[in-house]
Write a structure and sequence with these properties.
This protein has 13 helices and 23 strands. Helix 3 packs across helix 5 and helix 7 crosses helix 9. The protein is an alpha+beta fold and 398 residues long. The termini are far apart. It folds into four domains: 97 residues, Rossmann fold (3-Layer(aba) Sandwich); 49 residues, Dna Ligase, domain 1 (2-Layer Sandwich), CATH 3.30.1490; 131 residues, ATP-grasp fold, B domain (D-amino Acid Aminotransferase, Chain A, domain 1), CATH 3.30.470; 76 residues, Glycinamide Ribonucleotide Synthetase, Chain A, domain 4 (Alpha-Beta Complex). The structure holds adenosine monophosphate (AMP) and glycine. Glycine (GLY) binds next to loops. Adenosine monophosphate binds next to strand 6, strand 7 and strand 15.
Length: 398
Amino acid sequence: MQVVVVGSGAREHALAWRLAQSPGLTELHAAPGNPGIAALGRCHPVRADDADGLLSLALTLEADLVVVGPEGPLVAGVADVLRQNGITVFGPSAEAARIEGSKAFAKDVLRAAGVPTAETLSVARAPCVVKADGLASGKGVFVCRTSDDVDEALRAVTAFGGDFVIEELLEGEEVSLFALCDGSRAVPLGAARDFKRIGEGDEGPNTGGMGAFSPLSALGDMDELVARIHQPVVDELARRGTPFIGCLFAGLMLTPEPKVLEFNARFGDPETQVLMPRFDGDLLVALFAAAGGDLSGVEFGMGADAAVTVVVAGPDYPARSDYAGAEIAGIEAAEATGALVFHGGTAVRDGTVVTNGGRILSVTATGETIGDARRTAYDAVELVSFEGAQYRRDIAHA
Ligand code: AMP
Ligand code: GLY
C-alpha cells in the first residue's frame, strides 16, 4: 500500500516509524514531513493544510491511505476534500473534528451523549477554568484560583478574539485516553500521561506537551472507560450524521468518577511518541480498517513494556515556536543507546540537521518499567544538544 502521512511533527514521525514496520506497506510518503521521516520514506513539499495540494499528491501517488496528523487541517476540512474525491482517509471530517475545534460544540455533544464532564458555569468566579472557544494549541485555557487569575484570563481570552466557556475547576491526575474509531465503533488504543507545563514541578505556562509516559497504573479498566466516554460520543456524532473516523483522544481528570476535560480529534503529541513504541499489532491494517469504516475483527493493543518520551524544546518555547537554524548535535549517538529520536521541529541546512520550530525533538525510550525507560530516555537526551535547548528533568518521575 502507498500511504501518505500528513504533518511534520514528532507525532507524525512516530506514526510513520510504526507504519514503516507494517508488512503491507509498499511506500511511505509524507506531506510535508520532516528530516526524521525522510529517513523512512519520501517527503513532498505540500503543506498539511493545503487540501488541493494534498488531493493532487494523493491522486498522483495513487495513495491507498492518507493519515492526517494535526488538528488544524482536520478542522479546516482536509479529510472532507480527500474523501469526496475517493481517497481513503484516517481522520475526521471538519464537522466531526468540531469535537476539538469548538469547546462549545464539544460541551453540547457531551451533554447529549451523557458523558461526565466539568460543569459549565455562567459566571467567571474563582475557582474556575476559562477556555477560549477555538483552537489554541493548548494555550487558550486558564486555570483560575483567585479573582486576579480570573481578570487576567478574561483579558487573555478576549485577546484570542472569539467566544469562551467557563467551567468548574477539577482537581486530580490527568490522563490522555485514545481510541481508534471507524464511524460507529471506538476501540481502545492506549493511555498516556502528558506533562503540559513548561517548567519542572508543573510550573509556568501550558505548552503542547513537554514529555509523556505510558502505561498508567492509576487508570483502571480501559475498555470500560472507552465504553463510557468515547463510544457515546462516537454514537452521538453518528446520530447527527457526522460519523467520527480517526483517533478520538479524551483528556480526562481522574476525579472519583473520571471526567472529560476535552476531546481532541487526532493522536496526541507527545503521547503518540510513547504509544507507538508500545503498540502491539499492525498499525497500517488498523488505520486502514478504521478509515474504511470497519474495525471489527482487527486486533491491536499495547505491549507489556513501558515508554517515556522527553521533549527537547527551543529556548523561547512556548512563547515562540520558530527557533530556526541552530545546529543539532548528537542525534546518532542518542539513537545508538537504543533510544528513538523523533523529529518535531527540525530542518536540514547544508547537510546538517538544524532546529526549526518550538518542540524540536522527542527523545523516547522503552524498558521493562517506567523507571528503566526514563533512565534510558534521559541518558539519550543528554547526548543531544543545540544552543538554547531546554527540557524538563522530571518527566515520569514518581
Ligand atoms: P484543554 O485544552 O481543555 O485540555 O485544557 C488544557 C489544560 O487545562 C488541561 O490539560 C488541564 O490541565 C487544564 N484544564 C482544563 N479544564 C480544566 C478543568 N475543568 N479543571 C481543571 N483543569 C482544567
Ligand atoms: N499532548 C496534548 C495534545 O496533543 O493536545
